[in-house]
Amino acid sequence: MYSLLHAPSTKANNTLISVLAVCSESVSEEQKNLLRSEGVTVVEVKDVPVNWWIYSGVSRWKEQFTKLRVFQMIEYKRILFIDADTLITRPLDAIFSEPEVTSLAPRIRDSKLKSDELSPPKEWFFAARSDSGLAGERDHPIPPFQTTAFSAGFFMLSPHPQLYAYLLSVMSHWRRFDPFTMEQSLLNYVFRREGTMPWRELNWKWSATWPTEGDVQAGVATVHEKLWNRGPELLQRMWREREQEMMNFYGSYR
């Protein structure tokens, strides 16, 4: 939030873009009030009901499906979802003007729809970045190859209640998708390339998974990695410097 709202090198310049913190039921009032004091719009949501067969051995993923609530936020035309373990290197405002995100797409290949799933909307929008885990991990080329799967840590969508209902209907069917990576697997099934709503590819310079020094040097705007304890040394140093910059800001701000 510091990067989005206050850091001179990365804060948004377009004041019409809202910065939201989607807070699940486990987030304390103290934490939510702290976010509000920083100028963040806190959106309180209920956890998404998860069917019995959907589980993972990673306990910290227990609330992953809560992020699906963004598909219900129809008061917004477009939402850019960013996981918290993301380092932002430059302003993100311009992504909302990219040609890939300004228009809705018609539903195609209706023969791919399954009779036991609710019908998705006739027009929709969802865009993401190919996951470099399928393009060599840290050995990926720059620009990286497009792959058959995307990361659910950075994506854009147009909220639609029918789309949210469709996601829940898919979740109700046993093993319709592999639950190991939880909501990422669900979204990759719903927006699969060969399906009725194939996801759009965002420009590679907006986000990188399995990031390298080369990604940052090439101008990638966000890198998705837990840089406080792993990743290339240059990127870890950038994370620490941003953290110190943030602490200095709040020390004087308060």
Automatic annotation (TrEMBL):
Molecular function GO labels: transferase activity
Protein name (Swiss-Prot/TrEMBL): Nucleotide-diphospho-sugar transferase
Organism superkingdom: Eukaryota
InterPro entries, sorted: GNT1/Glycosyltrans_8, Nucleotide-diphossugar_trans
Membrane-spanning intervals of the chain: none
Taxonomic lineage of the native organism: Eukaryota, Fungi, Dikarya, Ascomycota, Pezizomycotina
UniProt keyword terms in alphabetical order: Transferase
